[in-house]
Each structure stands twice: as structure tokens, then as C-alpha cells.
Recover the amino acids of this structure.
């Protein structure tokens, strides 16, 4: 048994590292897709931030990301998820947790929300899994 | 061609949704907001975002906000990191002023300070790109390059186990950015531009990140001083939502960040 233990451990570690790599690849794909969505707004003068948030969406759950916005600017928050997630939505909440009115774009596993804050301060971007199983997603934002 | 068609469809769909407007309204409980994800690269705006917001309210005299060259021979790593952030903010100011020579000078100083911290050699390439874009007056690309430079400095710090310095770079940039914006608003006060100063959660977040750095670094006199003053600054930028700070309130913020900036720049470290 002692002889087999290192081999079993090696197989476990190898399997785990493959799983981690697969998740990283998924996040990279999600980020690329999110940047594709954001790229469409660049034509309208929006600059894409060189920052992002990647994570995992779970069924019947959402991920909240805190952002700090300036009154006077316009923003688009673009997100994309990879399979098995099928449909996502992006919404925005103010610092009191009240949902704010946004412009929105939805295209299955890609979505975006546009917002022009009247007040500077903290806001929360919510990325929701609307359809499908949990999967990796990535959020980027652009401003002008 | 396919890419263009996709962009066109995307823009059209976005436009249609924009026309219909509102989403359902709802409210999230405080405990969920508390647990929201936060990180340096998405929760903290760049100086460029701050300057973009200020620029909406009217014409700003960006070149009037320049400061004299700062020393690039600091020995204290925390001080170098704070000044590096300030210099990156200066780069954004020069881009707003569309001043290619100033951008090149600042770009060169950024590389010198970054090298003093021993960050990646790749930054030399960034320095060359900054020069090239400045010579060609590619201002939008320069903004992106400055942000990418800042992120590269930070990721290099993280890979060299210097992650404690990352928040200091961000903080230095925010302090310098706020100093410039408050100075510009003081020259020409109007409510719209003054509204950009309301950022209590942002300052609170940076303060909390400083509280997470190693006790040794936190005990350093400069870091300790800056951290203490940040608590005061948080109070000064905590205006009620919807209320624009008046001229006196803007002046108080300017004085507070100016004091911190003077300490960060000084060759004489606090004891």
C-alpha cells in the first residue's frame, strides 16, 4: 500500500492541476468574450479598463462586484460566461442596495449594462445566471 | 467583416434596449453588499477615469496642474511605491493636457522608479511604447498604455512577493489625482465637477487594504502617517449623496491630500 500511495497522490495532484488549468482556460475564454462585448462600445468612445473580475456563477445565485463610479462619466459593464452557463444578466445597484435603471444588452451567455451615475460613489454590479448550469464568467467595464 | 457585422448588431441591440430603458427594480440586503467582491483592478478607478469625469463639467487647465520634477532616488520602498502611483497620475494629467514632451518625461521617471523597485524588465518596453505613442499624439492609446504600465508594475510586484506595495501604488495615484482635481475645482468651482469628490467607500477600501499589509510595513513612519491621514480624508469626502461639496469643503480636501502628497514626495521621511 505504501508503494502505491505516492502514485495515487501523483495522479490526484495531476488531476487537480488539470482541473485548475481547465477553469483558468474557461476564465480566459470568458474574459475574451466579455472584451468582445465591451469592444462594441469602444466605437462609441468608451475606454475599456485594463482590469477584470472572473469567477464562477452558480445556479439561482448571483455574483456582486463593488465598483466606484464618478458622476459625469458613462459606464458599460460587460460580462460573458462559458458553457454550461447559457444565459446571464447584468444589473446595477447603488450603495443602499437599490437597483438602478440601466440600459441593457442581453445575448445568451453575454450581457451588459450601461449607466450614467448622477452621484459619485460605490455601486454594485450583479452578474446573474439566468439559464444553464454554473460556469466561469468574467466582468470588464468601460467608461467615457 | 464578420467582426464589423457583429459589432453593428451589438450596437443596434444595445440601442434598442437603451430606447426601452428600465429594468425591474429591487433592493439587495446590506449583508449581501458587504460580501460583494472587491479588488484593486476593478473596484478602484484609475486617475484617467477621475479626470474624464472632471473634464465633462467644462474645460480644465490641465497643464496648470503640473508639478515640478520629483526625486527618483528614494531609498525607502514604500515611498517609491507611493511616488510611482503619483507619477502615473501625472502621466494621465499630461495625456489630458495632450503634452507629448511631458508624457515622455514622466514615462522616463516612471521607469526609473519602477526599476528602483526591481520590477519587471518588460517595463522598458512599456517606456518605449509611451514615447512612441506620445510622439504620434495617440492620446487614447497612451491612456491605455499608462493603465497597462500601472498594472504591469503591480503584477510584477505580486510575483516578486511585494504585494504589500501594490496598494501603495494605487493610493499614491489616488492622492495625486485628488490633489489635482480639487485644485482644478478650486480654480473654477461648479457643482457638477465638485460631485466627483464624493468617494467615501473608495477611501475606506484603500484604508482596509493598508490594514492588511505586513505589520512591519504598516509600522514604517511614512505608511503609518499616510494611513492615519487617510482616515481623516475619508471623513472629508463623505458628502451626502446628491449634495455637491461647496468651495470650502473642496479646499479642505485639497489641503488634506496636499499635506499627504508633500510628505510622500519629501526626501526627509517622518520619524
Amino acid at each position: 500500500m505504501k508503494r502505491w500511495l505516492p502514485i495515487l497522490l501523483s495522479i490526484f495532484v495531476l488531476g487537480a492541476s488539470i482541473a485548475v488549468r481547465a477553469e483558468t482556460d474557461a476564465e480566459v475564454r470568458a474574459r475574451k468574450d466579455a472584451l468582445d462585448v465591451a469592444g462594441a462600445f469602444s466605437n462609441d468612445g468608451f475606454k475599456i479598463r485594463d482590469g477584470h473580475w472572473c469567477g464562477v456563477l452558480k445556479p439561482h445565485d448571483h455574483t456582486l462586484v463593488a465598483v466606484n463610479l464618478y458622476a459625469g462619466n458613462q459606464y458599460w459593464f460587460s460580462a460573458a460566461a462559458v458553457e454550461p452557463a447559457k444565459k446571464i444578466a447584468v444589473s446595477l445597484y447603488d450603495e443602499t442596495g437599490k437597483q438602478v435603471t440601466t440600459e441593457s444588452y442581453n445575448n445568451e451567455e453575454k450581457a451588459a449594462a450601461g449607466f450614467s451615475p448622477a452621484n459619485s460613489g460605490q455601486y454594485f454590479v450583479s452578474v446573474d445566471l439566468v439559464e444553464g448550469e454554473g460556469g466561469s464568467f468574467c466582468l470588464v467595464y468601460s467608461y467615457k | 467583416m464578420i467582426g464589423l457585422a457583429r459589432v453593428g448588431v451589438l450596437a443596434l441591440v444595445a440601442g434598442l434596449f437603451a430606447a426601452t430603458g428600465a429594468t425591474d427594480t429591487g433592493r439587495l440586503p446590506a449583508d449581501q453588499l458587504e460580501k460583494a467582491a472587491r479588488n484593486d483592478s476593478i473596484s478602484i478607478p484609475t486617475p484617467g477615469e477621475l479626470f474624464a469625469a472632471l473634464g465633462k463639467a467644462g474645460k480644465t487647465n490641465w497643464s496648470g496642474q503640473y508639478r515640478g520634477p520629483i526625486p527618483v532616488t528614494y531609498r525607502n520602498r514604500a515611498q517609491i511605491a507611493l511616488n510611482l502611483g503619483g507619477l502615473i497620475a501625472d502621466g494621465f494629467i499630461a495625456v489630458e493636457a495632450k503634452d507629448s514632451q511631458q508624457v515622455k518625461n514622466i514615462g522616463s521617471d516612471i521607469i526609473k522608479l519602477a526599476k528602483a523597485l526591481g520590477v519587471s524588465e518588460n517595463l522598458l518596453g512599456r517606456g518605449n511604447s509611451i514615447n512612441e505613442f506620445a510622439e504620434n499624439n495617440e492620446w487614447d492609446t497612451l491612456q491605455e498604455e499608462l493603465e497597462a504600465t500601472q498594472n504591469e508594475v503591480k503584477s510584477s510586484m505580486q510575483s516578486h512577493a511585494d504585494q504589500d506595495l501594490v496598494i501603495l501604488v494605487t493610493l499614491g495615484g489616488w492622492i495625486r489625482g485628488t490633489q489635482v482635481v480639487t485644485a482644478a475645482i478650486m480654480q473654477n468651482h461648479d457643482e457638477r465637477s465638485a460631485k466627483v469628490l464624493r468617494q467615501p467607500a473608495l477611501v475606506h477600501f484603500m484604508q482596509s487594504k493598508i490594514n492588511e499589509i505586513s505589520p512591519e510595513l504598516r509600522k514604517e513612519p511614512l505608511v503609518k502617517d499616510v494611513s492615519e491621514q487617510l482616515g481623516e480624508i475619508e471623513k472629508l469626502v463623505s458628502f451626502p449623496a446628491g449634495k455637491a461639496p461647496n468651495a470650502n469643503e473642496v479646499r479642505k480636501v485639497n489641503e488634506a491630500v496636499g499635506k499627504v502628497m508633500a510628505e510622500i514626495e519629501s526626501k526627509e521621511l517622518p520619524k
Remarks:
- Residues 163-187 of chain B form the longest helix (25 residues).
